[in-house]
């Protein structure tokens, strides 16, 4: 058994000044007072539940969708652990990408643990802010492909995102619901009525609420309004202050039950990358992502200024909610950890509690990650773990 001490441990039952006892990967004791056993002392540093990020495309120069080897995915997962992520849904959009992710999910790695797969698409409609209709890759709904997605996921496919208004979307939503796969409203032009029909048929998550969806308007509150108003819907929320302004985040949190908010990053391979501009993709003559810019304030944008994922991790959002919006960390960590575990039935995860997996993160008062533990193993130690950005990715830097 191992013990870890801190004056500020954020447990499921409140703040504890004491010790976490870990054995066989789980929390077996929470002790207040003295302990006559060896322990690792984290002093006044805070210990919070490990972040569960259910919408994440990659980090440190690696993309889950473009990775071709297990080692690349494992390196990406180590990068995620350096951001305080202990559990993750790698987010891709093609069934052909699932198999490699499943192979890694079924082994022990040094880094964040894959807890499921999130397929963001491929069936959407909206082009997004500053989008060009010619620069879209959405496919028509195909139920045979839906079945292939489930087969390739081998039980790990947890979430499929779909625009509820596209042709045959309701059939696909019904199919996924019948096999236990959650669906979310994604990249959608649906008005309030259409969004509600999607929810009535089984949609129960909002993909990055507010982004690439019809927003709040006084005559039609759109998909965003429907997802806020419907209690059945749990909303993904990027809290970097960029994708959704902090006043809008504050507004959402006033309207929506906090138990129905899941903080996500929407990170892409640019998370952890130096500021600058990079070679993007050139697979389409109309593509505005031939060059991608990582700005000083954390935007990842295309040539036209269109958002192209995020470089800020969930931990940055936690800091925003506590330090800028004045929320209690006890409340915030439920949105960064517990709510996702509850929504996707990730048993014994999402909080520091007896019998739960020992997934926790040690942070300083600047919200920098000092250590990350996954199932009781220290998978990241800032003092000793070196995170190297993909060297091939760095070669694409243009300045």
Verbal overview:
The chain has 399 residues and is α/β, with parallel strands linked by helices. It has two domains: 2-48 and 354-381, Urease, subunit C, domain 1, CATH 2.30.40; 50-343, Alpha-Beta Barrel (TIM Barrel). It is 25% helix and 28% strand. The protein has ten helices and 23 strands. The strands form four sheets. Strands 6, 9, 10, 11, 12, 13, 14, 15 and 16 form a nine-stranded parallel sheet that branches. Strands 1, 2, 3, 4, 5, 21, 22 and 23 form an eight-stranded mixed sheet that branches. The chain has a four-stranded antiparallel sheet with strand order 17-18-19-20, with no helix packed on it. The radius of gyration is 20 Å and the shape is globular.
Topology:
Layout: E1 2-11, E2 14-23, E3 26-32, E4 40-41, E5 46-49, E6 51-56, E7 58-59, E8 62-63, H1 70-82, E9 85-92, H2 98-105, E10 113-114, E11 117-123, H3 143-153, E12 157-162, H4 169-178, E13 182-185, H5 192-200, E14 205-206, H6 222-229, E15 234-238, H7 246-255, E16 261-264, E17 276-279, E18 291-294, E19 299-301, E20 307-310, H8 314-324, H9 329-343, E21 360-363, E22 369-374, E23 377-381, H10 391-394
